[in-house]
Amino acid sequence: MNDIQFETARQMMVDCQIRPNKVVDERVLGAFATIPREKFVSKQQRSIAYVDEDLPVSGGRCLMEPMVLARMMQALEIKPTDHALVVGAATGYGTAIMARLAGSVIAVETRTQLVEKAQETLVSIDVDNAAVIKGRLTEGCPKEGPYDRILIEGAVAQMPEQLLDQLTPKGRLLAIWRPSPRGAGVASVWCRANEGFARTPLFDAQVPLLEEFRAKEEFVF
C-alpha cells in the first residue's frame, strides 16, 4: 500500500468504525484521522493496520481496537493544557493520539525494545510533546506527575493505589476493568471521591488483559 491508500484506509477507519460508535468529539476524530497507525506495526502488518480489532505487537502487547481506544480518549475529556500519562504504551500509537490532544505526555512501557520503537516512531512523525520511558506499569511515573489524565492501554484485574495517587484533584483515569480473566471487560473511569476513588462503568469492551495488572492469587486454607 502507498501513502494515498493508507490515508484512505485511515479516513475509512474514522468514518466507518469510530464515528458510528458514539465518538463525536471532533478533536478525537481529527487525531485518529492524522496519526498513521501503519507506522506503529511491523511491515508485515501494515496492510491490516486499520482493521477493526486489536493488533498484536512484540512483547505480548497489542494496539487496541481503534473504536475502543477512541471511545476511551473521548471519555477522558482531554484538554490541550492537560499533562497526561499513558501506561502500557506498546509501540506508541495511543501515545501519539494522546499527544495530539494533550499538552504533554509521559508514556511508560516495561520492554526496552518497545520503548525504543515507540520513541523512534514518535520522532519520525514529528510528535515532540511526548516521552516514552522504561518502567513498571503498575508504578506509573510519579516523578513526572501528577497527571490530569491517565490512560491504561489494556484490561486490568486490579487497580494499584499508587497509580490513582498520581491523579490531580480533578484528574481522570481510564482503563478496561476486567476482574475475571474469563469475564467481559468494562471501560471505566476512576476519579477522586471524598478520601478515596470511585469507579464509573462506561461501556463494554473486550481487550487483552495486561499481565502486570493480573489479580494476585488468593490462597485458600
Describe this structure in words.
With 221 residues, the chain is α/β, with parallel strands linked by helices. The chain is built from 6 helices and 9 strands, in the order ααββαβαβαββαβββ. Helix 4 (93-101) links the parallel strand 3 (83-87) and strand 4 (104-109). The radius of gyration is 16 Å and the shape is globular. The termini are far apart. The model has no long low-confidence stretch (mean pLDDT 94).
In short:
By secondary structure, the protein is an alpha/beta fold.
How would the blueprint of this fold be written?
Layout (H helix, E strand, L loop, with lengths): L2 H16 L7 H9 L20 E2 L5 E2 L2 H11 L6 E5 L5 H9 L2 E6 L2 H13 L5 E5 L12 E10 L4 H4 L2 E11 L8 E8 L2 E9 L17
Helix pairs in contact: 1-2, 2-4
Highlighted features:
globular; 221 residues; two-stranded antiparallel ribbon; 6 helices; 9 strands; alpha/beta; 28% helix; 26% strand; single chain; Rossmann fold
| CATH homologous superfamily caption | Vaccinia Virus protein VP39
Q: How large, in whole angstroms, is the Cα Rg?
A: 16 Å
Low-confidence stretches: none
> Can you tell me the CATH architecture?
3-Layer(aba) Sandwich
Judged by helices, strands and strand pairing, the structural class is: alpha/beta
Q: What is the total domain count?
A: 1
In total, the number of strands is 9
Helix coverage percent: 25-40%
Strand content: 25-35%
Strand order of the largest sheet: 5-4-3-6-7-8-9
Note the overall shape. globular
Largest sheet: 7 strands, mixed
CATH class: Alpha Beta
| Intertermini distance | 59 Å
Q: What's the CATH topology label?
A: Rossmann fold
Order of helices and strands: HHEEHEHEHEEHEEE
The number of helical runs is 6
Multimeric status of the protein: single chain
Let me know the average pLDDT. 94
